[in-house]
Design goal:
Rossmann fold, about 475 residues, binds nicotinamide-adenine-dinucleotide, 18 helices, single chain, 2 domains, 6-stranded parallel beta sheet, 8-stranded mixed beta sheet
Length: about 475
């Protein structure tokens, strides 16, 4: 089928590549010329494991997506036009919808009759109607006047649907090929039928799984949740808010564990075994970051406020999360007393492992607070250093490719991102080259007693040595 994807960020590029891998004819549009040029030169502008191999497969199968900055070329191609542009938070917590607005109006100018405009960006409830109006506005711009001044209004039939995205950066290919569910929100039954058809290969898992991203054992057919547009929009915000709340809950329990002397990992193991609760997203630490949780919780709060409702659980979810970052500084002050002039190293700067994404990364707030306190901040990360340098030139961090070199002369070491590479470190060698002995395990990855036995002062988040 003919698919156009607007926006080639984490979501747009992965979505487009997966559709192309499944045999669809895909066109991608972005306003970022540098990004489109690198994609056309075979370079992938984001770090996402397996994406290079997926695109190589598309090349072999002659389904490599076309990348362009030409709106007409890309939009007029699609029977389905997916919107996957960014919707970052404004300072007041509401999402910035300017990219969505511009994309929707441009779509109207070039949309094919009968096409379905599918919103994959995470957007406030009611955006389906708004996108529809903007597309209409774009269509109206096609109207022409003849010599006698008579205006001909072009009529283009179209529908707007919602298809929220649940992929996680770092496992985006697997999440897209083997999703837990596919949510399709459409107000016209015929759009739902078309979208189900587009997704059939995926929902019925008919495709041959690639070697580098095998199908999980006993993976069933994927549940397709067909619903109305507003409910689909609410599903996305509610899912992210629930996951964020689960982590904040674990963090609040961790802080109580610290007070009473319990080990939060044990507590979460105990409660997660209850099948009504489950183990996932109950890892206490320095909290969530990334482009989605903070922004989506903020947006849902702002929607509720618009209707005069105070969503107190969502407010607390945020508050607990950002307090965890401050807690890191508090713990360092309690232990090192004077921070000025100390050397502190961060293991990891990406907001989570397997990505180079730094949006709302705890490492940035922690580094800023430490630099403000007069600390010499060092950092090491397997992939996010170039992004961090480029996006945060104001941050006077000393970057290291090798963590053992970074450790030399450190007063304290903080585990910020639980990269696989940081799981089994030679902690004995690290301690030997540090000048202090403080290890703040921000992700509760290490066994407190074994680390303390080496001579470290171990600080966990809700765990004591
Ligand atoms: N990143 C995630 O893990 C994730 C997961 C689920 C949902 N989402 C949601 O998906 C949406 C996209 O997120 P992302 O992380 O891919 O964003 P991103 O910032 O990585 O990418 C957005 C892209 O859209 C392009 N763009 C902006 N305006 C455009 C326009 N008018 N025409 C063409 N291109 C345009 C930008 O240049 C950029 O390349 C957001 O709403 C986000 O909340 C993201």
């Amino acid at each position: 089928m003919k698919v156009s994807v607007i926006g080639t960020g984490y979501v747009g590029l992965v979505t487009a590549s997966c559709f192309a891998f499944l045999g669809h004819d895909v066109y991608c549009l972005d306003i970022n010329e540098e990004r489109i040029n690198s994609l056309n030169n075979g370079e992938i502008p984001i770090y996402e494991p397996g994406l290079d191999l997926l695109l190589q497969d598309c090349k072999k199968n002659n389904t490599f997506p076309k990348f362009t900055t030409n709106s007409q070329e890309a939009i007029s191609h699609g029977d389905f036009v997916f919107i996957a542009v960014g919707t970052p938070s404004l300072p007041n917590g509401e999402p910035n919808l300017t990219y969505l607005q511009s994309a929707a109006e441009t779509i109207g100018k070039f949309l094919k009759p009968g096409a379905v405009v599918v919103n994959k960006s995470t957007v406030p409830v009611g955006s389906g109607n708004w996108v529809s109006m903007l597309v209409e506005n774009g269509i109206a711009q096609r109207s022409s006047k003849d010599a006698s001044g008579v205006t001909t209004i072009e009529k283009v039939d179209f529908a707007v649907a919602s298809n929220p995205e649940f992929l996680r950066e770092g496992s985006a290919i697997s999440d897209s090929l083997y999703p837990d569910r596919i949510v399709l929100g459409a107000d016209k039954p015929e759009s739902l039928v078309k979208l189900k058809e587009l997704y059939r290969e995926l929902s019925e898992q008919k495709f041959k799984a690639p070697d580098y991203c095998p199908r999980p054992n006993d993976f069933p057919k994927v549940e397709v949740i067909g619903t109305d547009v507003t409910s689909a929009e609410m599903i996305k915000y509610s899912a992210n808010s629930f996951l964020a709340a689960k982590i904040s809950f674990a963090n609040q329990i961790a802080n109580i564990c610290d007070l009473v002397g319990a080990d939060v990992n044990e507590v979460m193991r105990g409660i997660g075994s209850d099948t009504r609760i489950g183990h996932k997203f109950l890892h206490a630490g320095i909290g969530w970051g990334g482009s989605c949780f903070g922004k989506d919780v903020d947006a849902l709060i702002s929607i509720a406020n618009d209707y005069g409702y105070n969503p107190s659980i969502l407010e607390s979810t945020k508050q607990v999360n950002y307090m965890q970052r401050e807690l890191v500084i508090k713990r360092l002050q309690e232990n090192l007393k004077i921070l000025k002039g100390k050397k502190i190293g961060l293991l990891g700067i990406a907001f989570k492992p397997n990505t180079d994404d730094l949006r709302d990364a705890p490492s940035l707030d922690i580094s800023r607070a430490l630099l403000k306190a007069g600390v010499q901040v060092r950092a090491c990360d397997p992939v996010a250093i170039p992004n961090c340098k480029k996006q945060n030139p104001d941050l006077n961090i000393e970057y290291f490719d090798d963590l053992y070199t970074m450790a030399e002369g450190l007063d304290a070491l903080i585990l910020v991102t639980e990269w696989e590479q940081f799981r089994n470190l030679d902690m004995k060698a690290i301690l030997k080259s540090m000048s202090g002995n403080l290890f703040l395990d921000g992700r509760n990855q290490y066994d407190p007693k074994s680390i303390a036995a080496l001579g470290f002062k171990y600080i966990g988040m809700g765990r004591q040595a």
